[in-house]
Amino acid sequence: MSFARALAKAPVLFYRAAISPLLGPGKCRFQPTCSAYALEAIESHGALKGSWLALRRLLRCHPWGGSGYDPPPPSSRSRP
Q: Alpha-carbon distance 40 to 36, whole Å?
C-alpha cells in the first residue's frame, strides 16, 4: 500500500474506531456504508480520486438524498 493511500485511509479508520461506535448501529442510508465505500474507493482508485469519490458520497448522505445500494464505480485500471 502506498503512503498516500495509507494517509487517505487514516481519517476513515479513525472515524470507524473512535466516532462510529458513539453514534450507534443502523444510522447509514447506503450500502456499503460510507466508511466502507471510502476505503474501497481509495484502494481501487488511488488516494486522490478515491478521496474525491468518498467526499461526493458523503455529500449525498442527507435527509433528502438517496439511499440503497451504491458501490464505488469500477476502476479503469487493470489489476493483476
A: 6
